[in-house]
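quick one
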Amino acid sequence: MSIIKKFKNKITLDKYINLALYNEQDGYYEKKGIFGKSGDFITSPYISSIFGEIIAVWILDQFINKKIYNFSILEIGAGEGYLAKDILNTFEKFKNIKFKFNYVICEKSNFYKKQQKNKLYRFNIKWINNIKNFKKKNCIVLSNELIDAFPIKQLFKNNNAWYEKYVKLNSKLNKFEFVDVKIKKSHQVFKKIYPLKKLNFIEYEPDIENFVKNISNILKFDSNNIFITFDYGYNSRDFKNTIQALYKHKNANILTNIGNVDITHLVNFYYIKKLFQLNKINNINYHTQSEFLINSGINIRLNQVIKYTKNKENQKKLYLSVERLISKNKMGELFKVLIASKN
Ligand SMILES: C[S@@+](CC[C@H](N)C(=O)[O-])C[C@H]1O[C@@H](n2cnc3c(N)ncnc32)[C@H](O)[C@@H]1O
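structure w/ S-adenosylmethionine:
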């Protein structure tokens, strides 16, 4: 892989992940075939289009209840565009309500941006490169499995000194290995959130601070703006060591087969909630995916669809796919939904 040639010295874990996932030549997210059954991992929109339908109805509910009939959606990290397609198809079904909307996508990968443009050609969508200057009223900012795809750093304490995980190339063996490097300054933001003395390990996304700041600015721009994000993760003051590589739905080695394996982690929602609060966003709701989807009517929708599905085998498939999204020992509990707004 070309990034191997770029390696002269050791680099931090997040820089390594960023190269492995996003380098334009042969990064993991610049390749096809990573999603779905035949790929490396599966996300909710691939399991059932009912996931997108429920989100579409939830979005409509947010605005129509307030008698707002003109709104925007900004989706960040849209992958192959399945969620967008399901949401837009669902909007088209509501012929008796007159509403207008803009659908905007911000996507980091050039390859997936192209895929989205192909898949969503019949819809009126705008792509933007950066959310920093995004200013719209009546707007939902939406993402599914975005933050777990952000590169992460790992820091840990040993004998009262802090160390950071780096990756270096062992040129003799021609393979990558981890090295721990003593760091002088621990990162400022943690001091604002945690008494550092009580922490021994930190795994976080260095891009998250800016990301939450940008989202908070969008939320502060209009009290009707709402951020909703779905991801796997946990809610705990203490950070966990959750980094993992995935290849064909199985755990893989983070340091080998670079560019062909996904490198991901569980999101610490406690930390993200704290970051929103630092940005003066205090209206934050946090649910399991199961709670959110059930409260938003997924079982009612499932029964409707089953009623119109004649074939018993297809009925069973529908039932099992929704069960996978909501059941406690599948995606229902591990996946969380964070919803934030100004008021
Ligand atoms: C795990 S995939 C999820 C794709 C899709 N949302 C789904 O549920 O199938 C993560 C997506 O986020 C994109 N991405 C990662 N970091 C991003 C960023 N900072 N801004 C925009 N997109 C990003 C990736 O390129 C990829 O399309």
